[in-house]
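Incident review: delayed structure delivery

Summary: a single-chain prediction request sat in the queue longer than the usual turnaround. Root cause was a stuck worker, restarted by the on-call engineer. No data loss occurred. The affected request and its eventual output are reproduced below so the record is complete for anyone auditing the incident later.

Affected input:
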Amino acid sequence: MSKNVKGYVSFVLHAHLPFIHHPESDDYLEEQWLFEAMSETYIPLLRNFKKLVDEKVEFRITMSMTPPLLWMLDNKLLQKKYIHYLKEHIELCEKEVKRTAYDSRLNELSKYYLNRYSDDLYLFENVFNCNLIQAFKHFQDIGVLEIITCGATHGFFPILYVNEKTVKAQIAVGVQTYKKYFGRQPRGIWLPECGYVPEADKYLKEFGIEYAIVESHGILYADPTPIYGTYAPIVSPGGLIAFGRDMESSRQVWSSINGYPGDYNYREFYRDIGYEADYDYIKPYIAHDGVRVNTGIKYYRITGKTDQKDYYNLQWAQDSIYKQTGHFFDCRVKQINDISSYMDHPPIILCPYDAELYGHWWYEGPDWLYILFKKIYYDNCNFKLITPGEYIDKYPNIQVAAPCRSSWGANGYNYVWLNPLNDYVHRHLHKAGDRMVELAHLFPNEQDELKKFALNQCARELLLAQSSDWLFIITNQTMVDYAKKRIKDHIGRFTKLYYQIKDDKVDKDYLEEIYKKDKIFDEIDYMIYY
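Output delivered after worker restart:
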């Protein structure tokens, strides 16, 4: 629809999960993180992108798809496990339809879940051919989605840069993975945890990255102070364009006090039949060791700050979506009206979020985006949706300022990833990083195939150990034992290979065994650490 455009809004969703791949066992509960995200976030987003395109609604959205997520979505074993996960859920839903026949409201919800999981299975197998990456690529290729990259394993640059080659490798492998799956050069990067350090700029530029997403204060405390705050990007002295998060629009979604996901009509995340159904009844559908876990079948709405929860009502949830998209829309109209008159080109309001907020944590999130995008297209307003790449193309005249070191962790700095609970990890990560650089210099362009295989596997193990997720999990005290085990396993495998390579005694059987477990980054070249 034609409109008087005074500004732009840019949604950026960060789709990321740590690499979890256990061919040795079906007992790893953590693989379910991927399956939940596929059913609750990625497939609903794809479903709604298709609806918007079919309805000829013009929209724009940006997503980062991180290398570990891409490798997991491409993994044939995980695809098979996801199909099994869906079939188990469909079986449970069929039982629930019978069990809840005594209550019409519950019965309606159980039928809804049966249809939802059945539709997921149909779409995954028959429409997407088990390939969600290709489905997202399609929307990029037709111009409505801009996909950006991330560090290879979401390593946290503000700590890794102690050895800059480890940051270089995170960037290089991130770009290489993107090209493998999308057949083009990525323009932008979601800095892992929005962790910005100026030392990374030269490597981002070396590998063709034009822009990065940073936290608000990374822009607001830049030097010199940016004229337009976060309403326009800045370009660092090293040539990296930085877009900062808009605080007002973020607060409306993120705030635990008055954010949209807390609406009393929305689905209650923490009430799940996995924890509440009769144990013998639910036992076949929970963890192999008998531990109760989420099944995704949740019958209650948030209701309020009370333990007496009311049943979830699909229509009431829709009513809240319409009300809140109207509020968000009106706020952006006012915000752009207020600031555009002070600027010499239209402002951009950047709205970055974890993709998994939309659907997994906030069940109604994907539908909220769908309704909002239609409203922006059809209603009379002063802004349009845009991607950061499109904004740069339209308005290439950008103020030079050095962004401030920053992250989007608590208090904006590094505490989440470096604190008394997890600080012991860093000496091992730094030591392994130094040793990887040492190996690259000791064996430049190694010709012996077995040794080269071992050197490349060292690079994989180092990257997997560097994942910021393990440090985050330890700080948040969630799946701590698993996170600690992953760090220990990857550093242990790296160290064992390091000594085998130096002693010229590479154990081929051991190497092949760990490659099967940590099968990621097939095209990696350890010489990136040279």
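Verification: The mean pLDDT is 95.
Action items: add queue-age alerting; document worker restart procedure.
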